Amino acid sequence: MKYTLLILGMALGVVSAQLEVSVAGLQVVGEGYAPKGDDKKMGQELRAFNWNAGTKIALLVKSKGKTIIGMDEDGSKVTVFSDDKGTDFTKVKRRFSRKSVGFGFPRLSEDGMALMAEVESSGIPQKGAQSVLLKGELLVSVASKSKLSKSKVTELKKGVKLTVGKQSFEVTEAGKPDWGDDPWSVELKSNVSYKDFKAFKFYDAKGEEIKADKKGSGSMGMFGKRTYTVTFNLARKVDKIVLGLDGWTDLEVVKVPFDFTVEAGL
User: CATH number for the 5-143+254-263 domain, one of 2.60.520, 2.60.40, 4.10.320, 3.40.1170?
Assistant: First the structure.
């Protein structure tokens, strides 16, 4: 089968106790073209929309009140992903992945009231298919209450650790940022993500809050362990600092089931 199709489909949401999920988009991309034999070179492929062949459905999760903290990709599951002619996308191996179905990179809205997750597979509907079927369950964490805890006053320099409750953050960089007008920057490393907290706050030795803007983050994992880094630019230079963590106190994981039949029409 040789075809290329990009379509958007909408469907009514499935309602859970706290969250509502709906289909925000459907993308189908067919096989493109690549030179054969000795002339075949990486980067010489022609791909529609510069995207790999496969099927993708975007799910929009909206909260009815509580803040959405994130989604557990490993705990979430897809039990049905197919076309209406019986083509099972869960049986097709994805490019550069051991799993047949993935959730892309879930994204949160700035206000924490919505999350977008994209279910994707390398499977393509067969010719004549009219709809795509998707069924499964998302595990989404939500919260509404938080409490601020602070570290002790600590000298701000590379290598020191800022401890807040049971959480410890190593200062891996401290000094004037490489670019921008901000006078000071601090990079923190730990085994927890900044996304697990409502906010990071910084104070000087006198307890006065220092305006801080998040400028970057990253993570690295190996053998089941993962470390996270996050960088903040501070509005003024300080020699000693207090780290405040505004942590969620009522964090809970909500199971959000979904069951959609998505057609090409809007």
Answer: 2.60.40
